[in-house]
Amino acid sequence: MGVGPSGLVAESDYAALDEERLARGQRIAPEGNAHQSELSPNRKFMIGTDEDFSPYRVTARIDSGPYAGQEYNATSAAYTKPIDDTTTISGGSTYVGQACAALPPGTGTALVERGVCTFQAKLDNIMAAGYTAGIVFQNVRSDCLGGSTMAAEGPIPYVFVDRYAGLRLLGVPGVTEANACTTPTPAAGGESTTIQSVFDGWDYVRLFGTDIPRSGTGSIRQFDTYTVPEAQDPAYARGFGDLSVHEVAMDPENNKLAYLSYYAAGLRVVEYGRDGIREVGAFIDEGGNNFWGVEVWRDETGEQYVLAGDRDFGLYVFHYDGRSGVRRDTLTTYTPRGLTYRRFRVRSVGVRT
């Protein structure tokens, strides 16, 4: 959490299980999409936002052979059929080499090694042979445990995995992360696998307590999390925009107030402290919002406003009139130069289509 002349002051890590999903009965590791954070004026708290553009996560598992039950990471090519709630790769796989020339007819999933020709050429050849899905694994190289973004376009699911995953899918005995980059590829093989998408919600906001001394090491520990309820509801996974938070702006004059900009879930006002974090105000315009940045600003008279940039409609200027203990607060919006003036009394907030 910051690096000074003496080095790292403090650091934190995600929990073993995603807290918001665990509270809803799902045991799954957090994705870790940390994006932006700010300290409170007194430097005793920090709020961090996790940016997430999909409420679904691709999970991949080996179903047969010596590595049955083990999981691996798989990344779809940009312009192919994505692994989502309607598309799954499942069943046996067949190793077809580098697939840089025409292949014999086949069915199911083609297992392909990277190299020699383009990702597009490999995809074209496995589709022409009759395969309905493709998995490309990394070739022998020093960075064989790294990923790759495949430039390929086609109507079937087509994913990339690292070499360690590829060799396990081939059933190579004794392969480990330590030796995968030098282990040769066998001539044949292919185990059963399942690659599917599971709902894991949009990411959310984390509240930390911080201790930042003038010198030496400090500490940081997570106190609480905050989420927009719809962001954790599968019913809002499609058709309601990106329900991800983007940025936080801490109130510079108030050690317990912060403002959050959500892409489709509007502007949220939260109070924070050692007892946790809770929403005390919210705004979503008629027809929805697509907020990005948020910042606190004072004019020449000292009056404080909250500025929020909407990627579709431009700048919104808010004045927050909340009082301690008031659950439904007044938010006033302006457009530049006072061309339009509107006042909203926030009674309930829903995510608009």
What would you say this structure looks like, in words?
The chain is 6% helix and 36% strand. It is mainly beta and 353 residues long. The chain folds into 2 domains: 3-54 and 200-345, no CATH class; 56-199, Glucose Oxidase, domain 1 (3-Layer(bba) Sandwich), CATH 3.50.30.30. A hairpin with a 2-residue loop joins strand 1 (3-4) and strand 2 (7-8). The longest helix has 11 residues, at 119-129. The model is unreliable at 1-5, 323-332 and 334-353 (pLDDT under 50).
What's the topology here?
Elements: E1 3-4, E2 7-8, H1 19-22, E3 34-39, E4 45-50, E5 56-62, E6 71-72, E7 75-76, E8 89-91, E9 93-95, E10 109-113, H2 119-129, E11 133-137, E12 158-161, H3 163-169, E13 193-199, E14 205-211, E15 219-226, E16 245-250, E17 257-262, E18 267-273, E19 276-283, E20 291-298, E21 304-310, E22 314-320, E23 330-334, E24 341-345
Parallel strand pairs: 9-10, 10-11, 11-12
Antiparallel strand pairs: 1-2, 3-4, 4-14, 5-6, 5-13, 7-12, 8-13, 14-15, 16-17, 17-18, 18-19, 20-21, 21-22, 22-23, 23-24
Which features would summarize this protein structure in a list?
mainly beta, disordered N terminus, Glucose Oxidase, domain 1, elongated, 3 helices, 5-stranded mixed sheet, 5-stranded antiparallel sheet
